[in-house]
Amino acid sequence: MDVKEAARERLEQHREGLVALSHRIHAHPELGWQEEKASAWVADALVEAGFTVRRAAHDLPTALVARAGSGPLHIAICAEYDCLPEIGHACGHNIIAAMGVGAAIAAARVADDVGLTVSLIGTPAEEAGNDGGKIKLVDRGAFDDVHAAMMVHPAPVDMAEPPILAAALFEIEYIGKEAHASAFPERGINAADAMVIAQTAIGLLRQHIRHTERIHGIVTHGGAAPNIIPARTTAKYMARAESLEKLQSLIPRVHRCFEAGAIATGATLHLAGGDKPYAEMRHDPDLLALYRRNALAVGRRLVDAQGRMSSGDLSRAAGSTDMGNVSLKVPSIHPMIGLDSLPAVNHQPEFTAHCATPVADRAVYDGALAMAWTTIDAALNGELCARLLRREAGASQARRDR
């Protein structure tokens, strides 16, 4: 039997279980670092499929590493399973987890035949925004013996090479002084006013940044009562740019906006976070070409970053992910798989609903098959395989030299 057909046959055998896994995670959303049920369900599915599974991998309670095959080319498939606050799986991480499991199971069927080692790496807390699960896993050596990595992410439409920005998340706190807001306002220091000044400054700054850059955030605490001068306000803000280099020039400008609020009101400013930013995604062109071909073969319709959708063009539809940090470590890809969800888009409750539908279930199967076939093609492509192996050999030597 053809190796790709054998992989498809194995995936078909697990199709019902993969859809059930996707729906189970969707029905029990868990925030980052708290994905106890989801990580256990993913691990259980892989154990049943014959993988060697290490739970709580690299001292992260909800991370896991599952491995099968013994070939020289080691490809990791990343699985996310955390949700968003209040709106659940509005980014489809339930689909990502099930797709990843399916791809690993399908590729494992022929791993030794084509010279593959395949790993499923369960990566918690992608939505953390700073020092996410993949960053910790990279730092702790989870990808040291990996030659390439991949994952596929749900979106309204299919895109092989979505624009993915570097991003930093930081937390802001202003400390002022309480006073009666009517009787003794002159005795207070208004921390809420400091936040308003900072937000106004950020609004003005947006005119003077690159069109590819983003600044956005929320106020998480604004005061206790309307008749008390707010003595404490807090916020979380994100800054994004095309690369870590450009991000490092943007962040100080954003920080100065918050400093302005403190200077104007006399409040004390505390800034934290942003020390472990998400990197831009560097899609490996050869792996991406293989994925494009396989996605088309399973019936997906790909658009590029200049494609159109009913709510506008895709050139500004840029998110961020800690998969970018993996792509700086090893050759990687991060395509999008469409759920035909428009006008609903990621991070909307309406998108949450789309992530447990027949269209989403088809995406679980299609994405898993496209990834499995891509790993097989990479192993059978002599030139690409040699490049990936040489690169890792050089990286291993560099680690030993350190």
Structure, explained:
The protein is of the alpha/beta class and 402 residues long. It has 2 domains: 3-164 and 281-401, 3-Layer(aba) Sandwich (Aminopeptidase); 166-273, Alpha-Beta Plaits (2-Layer Sandwich). 43% of the residues lie in helices and 19% in strands. The protein has a 6-stranded mixed beta sheet with strand order 1-2-4-3-5-15, with helices on both faces. Strands 9-10-8-11 form a 4-stranded antiparallel beta sheet. A two-stranded parallel sheet has the order 6-16. The radius of gyration is 23 Å and the shape is elongated.
Key attributes of the depicted protein:
12 helices; Aminopeptidase; six-stranded mixed beta sheet; alpha/beta; about 400 residues; about 45% helix; Alpha-Beta Plaits; four-stranded antiparallel beta sheet
